[in-house]
């Protein structure tokens, strides 16, 4: 693609705009236009006043007239030149093969400066980067990423000088990496549905094409994707700044509000006493907009715009963004950006807890609420918001403190098109209380809140930074935001790295290591849990101990195991104990929901009822299940191990006859299928079916590899490559293996012989970022490669 590259800025219409800017300087023109406009606005009224009143002397009046005329001429000339320059910068060339025609004015100016900087050499990506580092965009990115832009500019300048001696202009006027940068920027612009290449496109393209930029990103643990996040952040801030400066824009005029809109609704004296006006609140907050949740806001607006069934039940877990969604709707309504029926509505939050605390008797409460609901319906322009709606509706066998049952009262108003509410609740509140009254539920349109993505979470944090910096007088850098996302991922989505290995048996080592290695490498395509295994073997051979060991290895403690004795679930009526009901949480699903990073041991799985096995069929296949309260329980970050001693006689008999393990497994499974113990589709959902036999010394090499891999990954995060040799793995097994304790001492051997040596070398400065090291298997001394 680069070989067909045609790029000539001198033949692009943008060249005229850049030349115009060099002569007149559009920034100065803007200052002149602003200055002369203010001078004219002052001088003209003074002249008119002096002319009409004769208070000012003729000589002074002549000077004021001259100033007025000069101001008018300066303002007129500056405005005409400014608009002509802006028109030049917006000129789009007709279809051509010249890639320079796709550049914005700002990028064209940077390219011309880089070509001038190159002089007799071919302009390359370093020339482009060096000029770009002078722009505000680069200053923002380097400031927020805590990078030294001056030192980096010197490094780029050094690379530029080195390449200037090599890249002398010949047949091609631009170096290859310059071409690749422009082409990559064009791709980025097209991906973002832009017809022009902007400054941020060039910056992101350079982060992936320029060798100096790439080297710096590697050293600072940053990526090209981080640079994309940074330029997006800059553009959002820049856009908001420009919007705030444009006083007479339609958006800013709407934000100021207008007279009469507050009078558009009827009097709501009682409602005002027990509520908070969210429309005024969003105005005071600067009309905040929610990140993500666009679909939820759309569904709320669609429901509220109906003639009937126009009440919303917003369902989501606490902290999922329920209130942010409501506030975003309120902002859109207040700014006139919602539907015609919802624009400029008065959205108020009913303070039911406050009302309950001020009124003494249920009859008083009901009377006041009746007046409030009547006022809201009569006003015709009010949307009520009721938080924690489940606390105030039926389904309560006993009345809880701070709650009241308003089901009967509110139901008659919900049937009126003029009465509209947005009720907020949780999934627990929905299933435990609201669903107990189907008639009430039918009057509400459910909108469920989904979790936002990591990208949206990062954008949300970035949007909060200016306010936090002002509030706490502290600088917030991008690496801090990135660390928040990464640490959240560690505890919400990722799984901790291995810590130690104990007594694993034969095939379990190979099969488990293979599956979990695939999960770690993120090459597994299935949707189920991180790993699922069926351990088959006689009682007492270590199946449960192996599961405990794996729990300790992957989750740091045997306490992270959720153990179910499946012999207790031999009847269909036992399913509610697992999944729960609409009123009570399930024993099993509650544990998984509270601790998704766990190993689930299904002991004696063959004793469970077939219908219960069907539930786990879905877990193994899809990686999730829905509990009795309608909540989705994820097993994506869990390891599931089922144990069984079914068919153990087949195993013992086959092993005594020294038959191959694959033949033993096939015979055993056939026996289990014939006996109806398990169905083939159930067995096939497991990553591996593991048969147990004595652990040999050679098998422990797999464990040794796992432990050393963990050490290598820890060093890699510090920029150090650790080379694992076969001799080192064998030595760890030799020193750490004990026939009695199996692999229990191997982690201690690695700590004593390897980790302590590496830690001392790191602290002593003997090894540093960028080094490639190994450890001698005999002396345990560090060698650099």
Explain what the structure shows:
With 785 residues, the protein is of the alpha/beta class. It has six domains: 12-91; 96-244, Clp, N-terminal domain (Double Clp-N motif, Orthogonal Bundle), CATH 1.10.1780.10; 270-452, Rossmann fold, CATH 3.40.50; 455-492, no CATH class; 506-691, P-loop containing nucleotide triphosphate hydrolases (Rossmann fold); 700-784, Helicase, Ruva Protein, domain 3 (Orthogonal Bundle). It is 54% helix and 9% strand. It is built from 34 helices and 16 strands. The strands form four sheets. Strands 1-3-4-5-2-6 form a six-stranded mixed beta sheet, with helices on both faces. Strands 8-9-12-7-13 form a five-stranded parallel beta sheet, sandwiched between helices. Strands 14-15-16 form a three-stranded mixed beta sheet. The protein is flat and about 120 Å long.
Task: Spell out the blueprint of helices and strands.
Blueprint lengths: L13 H11 L1 H28 L4 H32 L15 H14 L6 H8 L3 H9 L4 H16 L11 H16 L7 H11 L1 H9 L4 H22 L4 H7 L12 H5 L1 E3 H7 L9 H11 L7 E4 L6 H13 L11 E5 L1 H7 L3 H18 L2 E5 L20 H8 L5 E6 L1 H6 L5 H4 L3 E4 L5 H19 L5 H15 L13 H16 L9 E6 L6 H13 L5 E5 L9 H5 L7 H8 L4 E5 L6 H13 L1 E3 L5 E3 L4 E6 L3 H9 L4 H15 L4 H4 L4 E4 L8 H17 L4 E2 L3 H11 L9 H18 L8 E4 L6 E3 L1
Parallel strand pairs: 2-5, 2-6, 3-4, 4-5, 7-12, 7-13, 8-9, 9-12, 14-15
Antiparallel strand pairs: 1-3, 10-11, 15-16
Helix pairs in contact: 1-3, 1-4, 2-3, 4-5, 5-7, 5-9, 6-11, 8-9, 9-10, 9-11, 14-16, 15-16, 22-23, 29-30, 32-33, 32-34, 33-34
């Amino acid at each position: 693609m680069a070989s067909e590259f045609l790029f000539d800025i001198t033949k692009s219409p943008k060249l005229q705009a850049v030349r115009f800017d060099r002569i007149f300087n559009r920034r100065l023109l803007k200052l002149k236009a602003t200055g002369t406009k203010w001078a004219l606005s002052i001088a003209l009224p003074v002249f008119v006043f002096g002319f009409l009143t004769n208070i000012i002397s003729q000589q002074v009046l002549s000077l004021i007239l001259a100033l007025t005329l000069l101001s008018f001429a300066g303002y007129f000339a500056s405005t005409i030149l400014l608009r002509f320059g802006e028109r030049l910068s917006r000129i789009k060339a007709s279809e051509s093969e010249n890639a320079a025609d796709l550049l914005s004015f700002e990028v064209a100016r940077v390219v011309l400066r880089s070509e001038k900087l190159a002089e007799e050499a071919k302009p390359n990506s370093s020339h482009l980067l060096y000029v770009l580092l002078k722009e505000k965009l680069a200053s923002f990115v380097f400031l927020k990423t805590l990078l030294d832009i001056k030192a980096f500019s010197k490094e780029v300048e050094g690379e530029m000088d080195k390449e200037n001696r090599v890249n002398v202009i010949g047949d091609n006027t631009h170096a290859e990496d310059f071409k690749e940068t422009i082409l990559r920027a064009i791709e980025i612009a097209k991906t973002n549905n832009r017809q022009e290449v902007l400054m941020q496109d060039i910056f992101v393209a350079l982060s992936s094409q320029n060798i100096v930029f790439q080297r710096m990103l590697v050293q600072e643990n940053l990526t090209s994707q981080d640079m994309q996040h940074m330029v997006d952040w800059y553009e959002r801030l820049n856009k908001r700044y420009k919007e705030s400066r444009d006083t007479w824009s339609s958006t800013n005029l709407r934000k100021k509000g207008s007279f009469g809109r507050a009078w558009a609704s009827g009097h709501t004296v009682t409602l005002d006493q027990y509520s908070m006006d969210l429309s005024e609140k969003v105005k005071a907050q600067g009309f905040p907009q929610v990140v993500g949740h666009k679909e939820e806001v759309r569904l709320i607006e669609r429901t509220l715009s109906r003639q009937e069934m126009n009440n919303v039940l917003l369902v989501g877990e606490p902290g999922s963004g329920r209130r942010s969604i409501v506030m975003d709707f309120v902002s859109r309504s207040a700014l006139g950006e919602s539907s015609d029926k919802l624009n400029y509505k008065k959205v108020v939050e009913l303070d039911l807890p406050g009302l309950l605390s001020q009124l003494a008797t249920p009859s008083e409460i009901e009377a006041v609420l009746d007046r409030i609901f009547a006022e809201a319906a009569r006003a015709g322009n009010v949307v009520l918001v009721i938080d924690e709606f489940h606390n105030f509706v039926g389904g309560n066998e006993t009345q809880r403190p701070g709650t009241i049952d308003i089901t009967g009262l509110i139901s008659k108003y919900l049937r009126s098109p003029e009465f509209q509410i947005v009720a907020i609740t949780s999934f627990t509140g929905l299933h435990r209380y609201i669903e107990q009254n189907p008639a009430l539920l039918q009057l509400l349109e459910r909108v469920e809140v989904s979790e936002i993505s990591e990208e949206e979470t990062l954008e949300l944090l970035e949007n909060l930074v200016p306010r936090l910096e002002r509030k706490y007088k502290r600088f917030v850098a991008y690496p801090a935001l990135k660390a928040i996302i990464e640490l959240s991922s560690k505890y919400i989505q990722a799984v901790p790295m291995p810590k130690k290995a104990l007594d694993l048996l034969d095939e379990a080592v190979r099969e488990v290591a293979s599956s979990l290695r695939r999960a770690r490498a993120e090459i597994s395509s299935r949707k189920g849990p991180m790993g699922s295994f069926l351990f088959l073997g006689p009682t007492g051979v270590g199946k449960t101990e192996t599961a405990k060991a794996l729990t300790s290895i992957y989750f740091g403690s045997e306490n992270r195991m959720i153990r179910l004795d499946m012999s207790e679930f031999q009847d269909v009526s036992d399913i509610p104990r697992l999944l729960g009901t609409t009123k009570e949480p399930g024993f099993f699903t509650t544990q998984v929901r509270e601790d998704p990073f766990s190993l689930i041991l299904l002991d004696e799985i063959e004793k469970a009822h077939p219908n219960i096995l069907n539930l786990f069929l879905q877990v193994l296949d899809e990686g999730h299940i829905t509990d009795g309260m309608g909540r989705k329980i994820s097993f994506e970050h869990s390891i599931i191990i089922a144990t069984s001693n079914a068919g153990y006689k087949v195993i013992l008999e086959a092993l005594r006859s020294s038959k191959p393990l694959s033949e033993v497994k096939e015979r055993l499974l056939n026996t289990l299928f014939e006996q109806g113990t398990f169905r083939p589709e159930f067995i096939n959902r497991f990553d591996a079916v593991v048969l147990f036999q004595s652990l040999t010394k050679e098998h422990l090499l797999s464990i040794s590899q796992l432990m050393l891999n963990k050490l290598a990954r820890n060093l890699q995060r510090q920029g150090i490559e650790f080379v694992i040799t076969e001799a080192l793995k064998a030595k760890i097994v030799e020193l750490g293996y004990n026939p009695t304790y199996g692999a229990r001492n191997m982690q201690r051997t690695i700590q004593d012989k390897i980790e302590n040596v590496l830690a001392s070398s790191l602290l002593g400065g003997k090894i540093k970022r960028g080094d490639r090291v190994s450890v001698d298997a005999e002396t345990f001394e560090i060698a650099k490669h």
